[in-house]
Amino acid sequence: MIIKGIRGFKDILPEETEKWFFVESEARRIFRLFGFAEIRIPLLERTELFARSIGEATDIVGKEMYTFRDRDGDSLTLRPEATASIMRAYLEHGLHVKEPVAKYYFIGPMFRHERPQKGRYRQFHQIDAEILGVQDPQADAEILVMLVRFLETLKIPNIALQLNSLGCPACREPYRAEIQAFLRRKQEGLCEDCQRRLEANPLRIFDCKKEACQALLGDAPIILDFLDEDCRGHFEDVQGLLRDLGISFALNPRMVRGLDYYTRTAFEVIAGDLGAQNAVAGGGRYDGLAKDIGGPPIPGIGFAIGMERLILLLDGAQAFSSRPDVFLATLGERAKREGFSWAQRLRGAGLRVELDYEGKSLKSQMRKADRSKAPYVLILGEDELHRGYVTLRNMATQTQEEVPLAEIGNRLKNLKMG
Ligand code: HAM
Predict the structure, then answer these.
(1) Domains recognised in the chain with CATH numbers
(2) Is residue 107 packed enough to be buried (19+ CB in 10 Å), middle (13-18) or exposed (0-12)?
(3) Spatial separation of the C-alpha atoms in residues 54 and 69, rounded to whole Å
(4) Is 93 helix (H, G, I), strand (E, B) or coil?
(5) Which of 53, 85, 124, 144 to mutate to test the pocket of ligand 1 (most atoms within 8 A of CB)?
(6) pLDDT digits (tens, 9 = 90+) for 354-403
């Protein structure tokens, strides 16, 4: 029996990778316009990095991390997200001294032991971007504009940006007490998990998927009513800047996010076409994170986009294509050999060339050309070779003409650009 892959760990097959490449290169292109530089972080970190930043009482740290002891006895964890690692690298290399304002992005796999379903995997990929060192609401607006512009570039349909402010620890403490008191009165109606959350981290109850718990939250107090003057002013400024830029959003005062490091602005992008796992991106401000992992107080804000979900949303008619520019068919031993050299020459000229390696019949090569979806086929036989010509067939119009071999590179390039 063939050994199978692991549940929740997906292969990305060649027919799909063109989309991944397209999404990644568009991200790099757009993020560059905003002055973001790429940072690459390791797959493994000390477990305590995530425990102290994401928070012990979250689902991620509590039950989803891939944690193990390595041969030296150290507790290590496969990264479940990128923000904590990026902040760690920023502090560890003294970048905060050299670059007090930094804009970084990262693309790569993350690991969470969740129940796999459509749009939810145990190894998944994120496109992550962070602005470190800026508290000003312009950083919040900038990260959101970049996210929205990127999704617009990809023409992702039916998406909505939801915004909330989670305040700072000073506003959250009285809010936490209030929500705890409110829910204690309804404690019997809460599920077992939420009864536990009620003591450890009552805000997490907003994340519970059970209808009974959600119903009890119907008229719960909301954090926006507890923001102090600074946090309220910050949130109003962010909204004002977004309006100036014509970015539409909706306030969602019940969005608390699944990680504990957030302060002030928090947001999610929800996609109408994704079913249950409908958050295509999420993020927010984390002004306390640097201190939580032992550093100086450095503010930050960022987002992460779930790449699998983003790719599910890509319209089939997008501008990515895995088809060759031209298929080269040859007839006879000499043409096969010469054709092989011509294929390399055309590739050298920037054309994507496919060919048959096995000396099959012309009929079989034409079938292969058809399957490859190449818009043009070059047919090279002994006779053409002798005369210095090649037959160029347009697969859409089913017409063909003879072109001098020496001109074929330029001719194909013109056709490709036209
Ligand atoms: P997050 O909300 O946990 O935030 O994840 C961001 C996105 O990753 C989600 O909106 C979703 O699209 C995708 N995602 C999460 N879990 C899975 C999964 N099991 N399978 C497939 N996709 C998934 C963060 O990770 C924060 N680090 C975001 C951030 C950056 N905050 C500030 N900076």
Answers:
(1) 14-168+228-313 (3.30.930.10), 326-417 (3.40.50.800)
(2) buried
(3) 20
(4) coil
(5) 124
(6) 998 898 999 999 999 999 999 999 999 999 999 999 999 999 999 999 99
Report pLDDT digits (tens) over 293-344. Answer: 999 999 999 999 999 999 999 865 465 667 899 999 999 999 999 999 999 9
Q: What is the C-alpha to C-alpha distance for residues 121 and 114, in angstroms, rounded to an integer?
A: 7
Ligand 1 centre distance from Cα of residue 161 (Å): 15
Q: Which residues have C-beta atoms less than 6 Å from ligand 1? A: 81-83, 112, 114, 120-121, 124, 126, 128, 130, 258-259, 279-284, 286, 302-304, 306, 308-309
Q: Select from 117, 75, 414 the least CA-distant residue to 274.
A: 117
Residue 279 pairs in a beta bridge with 270
Strand partners, 132: 102, 300
CA of 74 to the centre of ligand 1 (A): 26
Task: To the nearest 10°, report the CA torsion of 23, 28, 31, 36.
Answer: 140
Pocket test for ligand 1, best of 45, 58, 81, 166 (most atoms within 8 A of CB): 81
171-182 pLDDT, tens digit per residue, is 999 999 999 999
